[in-house]
UniProtKB/TrEMBL annotation:
SMART domains: AAA
Keyword terms: ATP-binding, Nucleotide-binding, Transport
CDD domains with a match to the protein in the record: ABC_NrtD_SsuB_transporters
Gene Ontology molecular-function annotations: ATP binding; ATP hydrolysis activity
UniProt-recorded name of the protein: ABC transporter ATP-binding protein
Species this protein is from: Nocardia speluncae
UniProt keyword Nucleotide-binding, yes or no: yes
The ABC transporter domain, residue ranges: 15-246
Superkingdom as given in the UniProt entry: Bacteria
Length: 267
């Protein structure tokens, strides 16, 4: 459904961040949110980003999306420099941000209306996403009739409707209870395997970061820098409970906690 002008240039690198620095000015003075950040994300890769609160994780996503300008360095999507808001990304926030007067289906199709997508193709893709995310039977439900997890599924469908090559997710499950969050992790991992979309996920959950990702980026306190990039050598298909018991999962999780200054444990 993407138009030629929306499609990223065909390179093996979906996201390239080079010597990125972001500074903000306020009445209190200048604040450096990110400093000399460099990151290469391969096409179809799932990368989790963890770090202390206020270290610039969300700012990094906003720069990739073209919503925040860098003070120094550069960001490219598929080899094309990011200058201004990007059309060929999807963005999922912590809150679902659904329009209360629109049904599930119409909330998802809002993306098509805003982008001027072909109506028939968008409706077909909407139906496919609803089925894939287990929302079948709730197409005409209003947001207040849905659980928090179901609302986030609608938000995810909306972000995927235009088939973005890069999906940015900013702590999307942080407001959910533990069991719902676990189910959403399983669902997201399945959807990623099926779609092959490149994903950058910001999270405060070490377990979530390791379970979902190919690699985990660990950031320092502000000004945010990348302290370490950790490969996650786990099978593509991951059963939730058994994955948590794998030596590789424990190794990566404990290393993240060590870097963040917390005691190693696996729960």
């Amino acid at each position: 459904m993407s138009t030629p002008t929306d499609t990223l240039a065909r390179t093996d690198t979906a996201v390239a961040v080079d010597d990125l620095t972001v500074r903000f000015s306020s009445k209190r003075g200048e604040v450096t949110a990110l400093h000399d950040v460099g990151l290469q994300v391969g096409r179809g890769e799932f990368v989790s980003i963890v770090g202390p609160s206020g270290c610039g994780k969300s700012t990094l996503l906003k720069v990739v999306a073209g919503l925040t300008d860098p003070s120094g360095g550069s960001v490219e999507l598929g080899g094309v420099a990011v200058r201004g808001p990007q059309r060929n990304i999807g963005y999922v926030f912590q809150r679902a941000a659904l329009l209360e007067w629109r049904t599930v289906r119409k909330n998802i199709l809002l993306q098509a209306e805003m982008r001027g997508l072909n109506k028939r193709a968008a409706e077909a893709e909407c139906a496919r996403l609803i089925e894939m995310t287990g929302l079948g039977g709730f197409e005409n439900a209003l947001p207040h009739e849905l659980s928090g997890g179901m609302q986030q599924r609608v938000s995810l469908c909306r972000a995927l409707l235009h088939e973005p090559e890069v999906l940015l997710m900013d702590e999307p499950f942080g407001a959910l209870d533990a069991l719902t969050r676990e189910r959403m992790n399983i669902e997201l991992h399945r959807i990623w395997r099926e779609t092959g979309t490149t994903v950058l996920l910001v999270t405060h959950s070490v377990a979530e970061a390791v379970y979902l990702a190919n690699r985990v980026v660990v950031m320092s306190p502000r000004p945010g820098r990348i302290v370490e990039l950790l490969d996650v050598d786990l099978p593509a298909h991951r059963e939730y409970a058994t994955t948590m018991e794998q030596p590789e999962f424990i190794r990566v999780a404990n290393r993240i906690r060590e870097l963040l200054g917390s005691a190693p444990h696996t729960d």
